[in-house]
C-alpha cells in the first residue's frame, strides 16, 4: 500500500499530554516529534489546562476547587546539517504543580498570628527544559540521536490548617518554603525508524533523571515565634521513556500511539527544616509518589482536504499511587481529544486541539494522616495551539 504525503502526524502533541493533577507532576509528555521532522523545521506552541478538582475533607466539609489553571509553552528548531547529520534544540516545561485551597476551609487554612489574616494552603512547582539533540542518519530509514538536557527547577509551598496537624502537633502554626531556581544537567538518547511510503514512523527515547540542589528558605510560625532556616533541598526529576508509533492504515489515514513511562516511584520533596520538625513522623515529606506512571495515547488522523486534516484520540494514565498528596489529589485519568491542522501553504501550518480529562478519584495524604479527604468526580479540559514552519 502506497500512501500520499500526509500532514496529520501527531497532531495530538498540540494539546497537553497529561492533566495538571494526573500522573504526579508530568505536564507535557516530553515529545521529540519536532526533531524527527524531515528537512529544516521550526515550531512554537502554547497549551492551557483548566482543571476542576474538589472533594470533602475528613470532617465532610467541601474543599472547594483547589486546582489552578496553568499554561505551558514549547518551541523547537531542527536543522538538517548534512544528508547524515541533524541538530535539534527543543524547549518545554515538563514537570510542575499548582494548587490553592480556599481560605474558607479550616482544614486547609489558618489565622496568621501576626497579621490576623486568614491564609490558605498553596503550592507551585515549575521546571523548564532545553534539550540539544544530534542525530546520525546512516540511511533514509534509521536515525540515532543523543544529547545534553539543561533543566531549571523552582518551587514555593505554604501549608496551613488542621489537615497538616502532624506538623502543628509539634508546635507548628504555619509552614513556608521558597525553593529558589536551580540549574542542572541530564541527557537524552534514542533511535527512530521510518518508512515514508507507508507513513510508518517509530521512535524510542530515553531521558535521564536530573538532580537539583535548591537553595531553600524555610520559616515556621510557632507559638513561641518564628523559626527560619536557609539550606539546600535535594530534588530529582524522574527518568522517563517514550515510545511513539505511527503507520498508514489506508490512503490519507494514519493510526498513531504513544506509550510513556515515568519513574516516579521514590520521588519526594523534603526540605531540611520540614524534615526536622516532623522527625517523629515516619516518612514525612511535602510530596511523595510510590508508583511509576504509565500513559497511553492512541488515535487516528486523516487528511480531509489539501489544506485540512484532523485527529481523534483516547488516552489513559495510571497515576503515581494512592493515597496522594493533597497538593495534587487525583489518581490518573481517561481522556478524549480532537485536533485539527490547517496548511495554507506546503511549508507552514497551524494546529489546534482540545482534550477532555476524566480525573481519577483519590484519597488525600498529608504528614499527619493518610486520609484527610476524598476527591471524586473531577475533570479537566486542555487547549493547544501550535505553529510549524518548514524551510
UniProtKB/TrEMBL annotation:
Membrane topology value: Multi-pass membrane protein
Keywords, comma-separated and alphabetical: Cell outer membrane, Membrane, Signal, Transmembrane, Transmembrane beta strand
Signal peptide per UniProt: 1-22
Subcellular location: Cell outer membrane
Pfam families from the UniProt entry: Toluene_X
SUPFAM superfamilies referenced in this protein's UniProt entry, alphabetically: Porins
Main location: membrane
Similarity section: Belongs to the OmpP1/FadL family.
Name the UniProt record assigns to this protein: Outer membrane protein transport protein
Top-level taxonomy: Bacteria, Pseudomonadati, Pseudomonadota, Gammaproteobacteria, Moraxellales
Amino acid at each position: 500500500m502506497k500512501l500520499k504525503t500526509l500532514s496529520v502526524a501527531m497532531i495530538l502533541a498540540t494539546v497537553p499530554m497529561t492533566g495538571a493533577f494526573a500522573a504526579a507532576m508530568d505536564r507535557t509528555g516530553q515529545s521529540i516529534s519536532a526533531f524527527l521532522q524531515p528537512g529544516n523545521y521550526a515550531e512554537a506552541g502554547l497549551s492551557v489546562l483548566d482543571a476542576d478538582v474538589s472533594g470533602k475533607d475528613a470532617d465532610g466539609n467541601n474543599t472547594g476547587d483547589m486546582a489552578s489553571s496553568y499554561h505551558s509553552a514549547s518551541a523547537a528548531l531542527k536543522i538538517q546539517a548534512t544528508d547524515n547529520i541533524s541538530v535539534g534544540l527543543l524547549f518545554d516545561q515538563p514537570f510542575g504543580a499548582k494548587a490553592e485551597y480556599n481560605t474558607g476551609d479550616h482544614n486547609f487554612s489558618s489565622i496568621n498570628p501576626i497579621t490576623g489574616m486568614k491564609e490558605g494552603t498553596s503550592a507551585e512547582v515549575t521546571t523548564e527544559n532545553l534539550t540539544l539533540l544530534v542525530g546520525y542518519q546512516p540511511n533514509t530509514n534509521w536515525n540515532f540521536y543523543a544529547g545534553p538536557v539543561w533543566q531549571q527547577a523552582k518551587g514555593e509551598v505554604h501549608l496551613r490548617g488542621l489537615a497538616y496537624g502532624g506538623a502543628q502537633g509539634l508546635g507548628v502554626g504555619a509552614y513556608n518554603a521558597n525553593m529558589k531556581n536551580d540549574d542542572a544537567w541530564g541527557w537524552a538518547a534514542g533511535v527512530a525508524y521510518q518508512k515514508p511510503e507507508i507513513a510508518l514512523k517509530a521512535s524510542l527515547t530515553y531521558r535521564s533523571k536530573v538532580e537539583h540542589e535548591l537553595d531553600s528558605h524555610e520559616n515556621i510560625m510557632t507559638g513561641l515565634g518564628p523559626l527560619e532556616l536557609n539550606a539546600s533541598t535535594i530534588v530529582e526529576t524522574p527518568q522517563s521513556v517514550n515510545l511513539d508509533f505511527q503507520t498508514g492504515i489506508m490512503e490519507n489515514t494514519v493510526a498513531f500511539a504513544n506509550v510513556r513511562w515515568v519513574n516516579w516511584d521514590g520521588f519526594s520533596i523534603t526540605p531540611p527544616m520540614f524534615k526536622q520538625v516532623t522527625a517523629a513522623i515516619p516518612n514525612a515529606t511535602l510530596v511523595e509518589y510510590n508508583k511509576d506512571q504509565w500513559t497511553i495515547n492512541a488515535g487516528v488522523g486523516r487528511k480531509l482536504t489539501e489544506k485540512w486534516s484532523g485527529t481523534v484520540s483516547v488516552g489513559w494514565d495510571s497515576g503515581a499511587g494512592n493515597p496522594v498528596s493533597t497538593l495534587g489529589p487525583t489518581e490518573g485519568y481517561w481522556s478524549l481529544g480532537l485536533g485539527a491542522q490547517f496548511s495554507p501553504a506546503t511549508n507552514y501550518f497551524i494546529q489546534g486541539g482540545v482534550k477532555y480529562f476524566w480525573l481519577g478519584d483519590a484519597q488525600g495524604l498529608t504528614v499527619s494522616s493518610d486520609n484527610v479527604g476524598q476527591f471524586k468526580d473531577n475533570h479537566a479540559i486542555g487547549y493547544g495551539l501550535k505553529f510549524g514552519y518548514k524551510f
